Amino acid sequence: MEKKFFQPPTVYVGEVNINVTDLETSLEFYKRIIGFQVLEQTNNKAVLTADGKTPLLTLEQPDGVLPKEDRKTGLYHFAILLPDRSQLSSFLNHIARTGIRLGASDHYVSEALYLSDPDGNGIEVYRDRPAEEWNWANGQVAMATEPLEGQSLLAESNEPWNGLPEATVMGHIHLHVADLTKTKEFYIDGLGFNVVTTYPGALFISTGDYHHHMGLNIWNGEGAQKPSSKSAGLNWYTLIFPDENARSEAIAGLKKVGAEVTEEADYYRTEDPAGNSIRLYVFKG
């Protein structure tokens, strides 16, 4: 993992906030299975961290919460980036002992494991290959979905899984959207991201030549509707800008494409055309 992709001057995902139907059950899963620590907790909310100080994932159980709605916009998965292959190996050995259903893929730029939380929220846990091994041509990075060499990964490390390493970051977020043309206008023309690769029905975008800080797809159907605010799934996610000037430029870009931007206490709030809520923060070091 190269920290340059998750610090100034890049713009990247910092934290993801999701609704869950049972906070206690979800908290047990994210602590025991994934390896998060609890940073803050109340009766209906838990803020989770890897380093004991930086929020990466927040779980909320709203009053009247509903099961995750199918075929809607919102979260496809959030992706937890581990520092190296040995840590991913330890995680895979740990998961193999739990009996939890797991998917796995080699994306050329990364090796990834996939699972779901008790509410069906998608989770990717991955490691990056060194950036010098990524293949770029005409501003596009080569990515694919190939079988993962599971035995090789399992054999990489004999170290026990002791929870998420301190250097863990939120590597990217992948969202269901309703319209790729409008989505591209919002994220590229508005927020200033770059398209770095495409799949059928999906765009992958980033800043600073990362393979992707975000994935955006219409796999739940073009014109998919926004879920209820009480549904399990995504509440909001944050984008971290390197400085106030960069955030101001993005806000101006969003307004130019017709997006509404609202100033809050220490961030700005907006929604993409599919109703996915975003909080715009400035890097604080």
From TrEMBL:
Q: What is this protein called?
A: VOC family protein
> May I ask which residue range the UniProt record assigns to the signal sequence?
none
Mind telling me which PANTHER family this protein's record contains? Answer: CATECHOL-2,3-DIOXYGENASE
Entry coiled-coil feature ranges: none
Q: Which InterPro entries match?
A: Glyas_Bleomycin-R_OHBP_Dase, Glyas_Fos-R_dOase_dom, Glyoxalase_1_CS, VOC_core
Q: Print the keywords alphabetically.
A: Metal-binding
Show where the VOC domain sits.
12-128, 169-283
